[in-house]
Amino acid sequence: MSINAEPLFQRPSLFNFNNEIKGSRTNNNWTTSKSSDSEESSSEDIEESTKPTSYDINSNLYRDGKGGYVPAELLPFPYPPPSTTLPKYPKEKQKTFVAFSLVVGSLLLNSVSIALTHDRVPDSPPLPDALLDTIHIIPELMRVPDVFVIITLLLCFFTILLHRHRWIVARRVFFILSILYLMRSVTIYSTVLPVANYTVYCSPKSNSTSLMTLLRRVGELLGGGGMQISGKKNSCGDYVYSGHTALLISGYLILKEYSPTKFVILHWISLGMSWCGMAILLIARGHYTIDILIGYYAATRMFWTYHSLCNNVNLKVT
What CA dihedral angle connects 184, 190, 191 and 195, to 10 degrees? Predict the structure, then answer.
């Protein structure tokens, strides 16, 4: 008799598991839905009715051909469980370094775009905003989202560092961030909005942006990470779209995807920082509402689309 079985590396859900196992374990004996009429079955009956098609590694049960479960010790022939060795994936460190180079280049291009946009910011009043015009502005809160971003980045760093497949995860994160910042560098320069909050200091404009002025601004942005909390960000005009929102949402999705599922508190903290950070950006008038919405949309769609392509074998092209 030749029987093929496919390993099940995940235990069935409690709902399906309870529906499929109609019996109960009493007096160290198993009573299944297919053998509930008789307490004991002969080896010939088991061999006729039991045709293992898959194996549940967590409960040492075999699924028979009729939809029920049979313990391995009741099988009339030796049927060893499949290997529990985790699959090995190539690290491909070269690709990770290429992805890291992409994200560095995107951050540099984003800083250049902000430095060039600074001289093109119009001196007109802030644009009408349906949400910002109805809330009380508290500009002193502008540094709070910076703190949330720093905490989120640190959590993501340690999550990637401690992950079993850290090279693969790092490569994915670098690629996603590089695309997000590449798109942001284009949108910032293409559409320049007036300053949303007059309390934010903007350095004087230049009649012509010289190379030295450009390099100085880029250095300040890179040195301070583009955050107000560093005290080095004096350039304005980087509105569409919100980099804080993109980082906070991407950080939450990374933690939710790659940290252990039992870290529920960590996931809720990250989600809370993301939504609170976006709300505070609006209360402090650090961004227009449209900046937050586009940043959220770009981060979520980029993350979900990329991981759909990674996890769906049918969408992979070799």
Answer: 70
Q: Considering 56, 64, 119, 291, which one is annotated as catalytic?
A: 291
Work out the number of other CB atoms within 10 angstroms of the CB of residue 249.
27
Element (H, E) at 61: strand 61-63
Strands 6-8 and 54-56: parallel
244 is catalytic: yes
Respond yes or no: is residue 291 known to be catalytic: yes
Looking at 118, 165, 287, 307, which residue is catalytic?
287
CA pseudo-torsion sign 134, 139, 141, 143 = positive
Is residue 7 within 8 A of residue 63, CB to CB? The reply is no
- Residues 4, 8, 13, 17: is their CA dihedral positive or negative? positive
Backbone angles phi, psi at 14, to 5 degrees: -60, -35
Is residue 165 annotated as part of the catalytic site, yes or no? no
Global pTM reads 0.72
| Nearest residue to 264 via CA among 251, 255, 275, 273 | 255
Task: Please identify which of the residues 133, 244, 267, 307 carries the catalytic annotation.
Answer: 244
pLDDT in tens, the chain (318 residues): 444 444 433 434 433 433 443 343 333 444 444 444 444 444 445 444 444 445 554 555 555 556 566 665 565 555 555 555 667 788 899 999 999 999 999 999 999 999 999 888 988 889 999 999 898 889 889 889 999 999 999 999 999 999 999 999 999 999 999 999 999 999 999 989 999 887 788 888 887 778 888 898 898 888 888 888 887 788 888 999 999 999 999 999 999 999 999 999 999 999 999 999 999 999 999 999 999 999 999 999 999 999 998 888 777 665
Cα angle: 129, vertex 135, 139; to 5 degrees: 95
Residue 36 structure tokens: 């509930």
Is 64 within 8 Å of 34 (Cβ atoms)? yes
